[in-house]
Amino acid sequence: MAIHKLFIDDLEEADFQLIAIHSHLENFRIAYFVNQQLQTRLSKSQKGVLIQKTAFSAFLFEDEKNDMVWTLIENKKEVQFPSNSAGLFANDGGLTSHAFFLPELKKVDYFLKIEGEEKQINTIKIIHQLKKINQISTVYAIQYDKLKSKNNLIF
Question: What pLDDT is recorded for position 1?
Fold first, then answer.
């Protein structure tokens, strides 16, 4: 009798494209400009994306006509820790730190994750359209297989 082995790596084929966006704008403004340029309807998700007790805001658009899901996710989140000190520094508000959705890409401000069949997603055209937005300084595609924190993209 033959033994068949199934490797997890064989099942990890990405069915989405990931685009990095650099911009100084707030998340709702980026979502507005992306909606205008790409003819999408990104709207704020109530839950966001929870990674290690940190909720990253996300904007979601489910395109049922083309069977695609668009998600705009912030990469940087300011996290405050309460202060345990008393006395002179009791009212300082605690410590402030930054949490990152994809820690290996700390300079990226937002990610646009587009889920769907690869042949449906024209990444080059999308990037070209996003570059037309004046408030976005840089846009480029991310190679999924080179990311260390791939699991953060599964939500």
Answer: 61
